[in-house]
Each structure stands twice: as structure tokens, then as C-alpha cells.
Amino acid sequence: MNTAEKIYAAVKPLPDAVAREVLDFVEFVKTRRDHAGDDNLIAAQTISMAGVWDNPDDEVWNDAAPR
Questions:
Q1: Nearest to 9 by CA among 21, 30, 19
Q2: Please, are residues 1 and 9 in contact by the beta-carbon 8 Å criterion?
Q3: What does the pLDDT profile of the chain (67 residues) look like in tens digits?
Q4: Which of 18, 27, 43, 47 is the Cys-Cys partner for 14 at CB 3.0 to 4.6 Å?
Q5: 23-40 burial, b for 16+ CB within 10 Å, e for fewer?
Q6: Contacts of 14 (CB under 8 A, 6+ apart)
Q7: What DSSP element (H or E) covers 64?
Q8: How far apart are alpha carbons 37 and 57 in whole angstroms?
Q9: 61 Cβ neighbours under 8 A, 6+ residues apart
Q10: Residue 5: which H helix or E strand, with range?
């Protein structure tokens, strides 16, 4: 029995509400894995844009709340 089959066997007898929680967790893990490379892209963008962002005209944005 592979891992997916073991997960299915473990979840199958659970009440539907609990099974939905398990599904939510699985989707969370998948989303986190799918976006794992985003931090590297953000770091690369920060380095490449430093000369544009760090200038006297843009000082007003230094205190803006991050998204």
C-alpha cells in the first residue's frame, strides 16, 4: 500500500467534517510547496530593484506598511 492509499484508508472512516479538515491541511501543504520558490524570486527582485527603490524621491514609501 503506497502513502496515498494509507492516507485514504485513514481518512475514509472519519466523519465528513473531520475529513474536510484533513483535506484543507493537504491543500495548505500543496499550496505552500507550490509557492516555496517565491521567496527566492522576491529576494532576487529586491536586489535588482535596490537602485530604483533606494533613492531620495521614494523616501515617502519607507514607512508604508508591507503587504
A1: 19
A2: yes
A3: 999 999 999 999 999 999 999 999 999 999 988 887 787 888 888 888 877 777 777 777 778 888 7
A4: 18
A5: eeeeeeeeeeeeeeeeee
A6: 22
A7: none
A8: 31
A9: 53
A10: helix 3-11
| pTM metric for this prediction | 0.51
Q: Supply φ then ψ for residue 26, to 5 degrees.
A: -60, -45
Q: Any idea how long the chain is?
A: 67
Residue with cell 529576494: 43
Of residues 46, 1, 61, 58, the one with CA closest to residue 9: 1
- The DSSP secondary structure of 16-53, one letter per residue, reads HHHHHHHHHHHHHHHHHHHTTTHHHHHHHHHHHHHHHH
Contact 11, 22 (CB under 8 A): yes
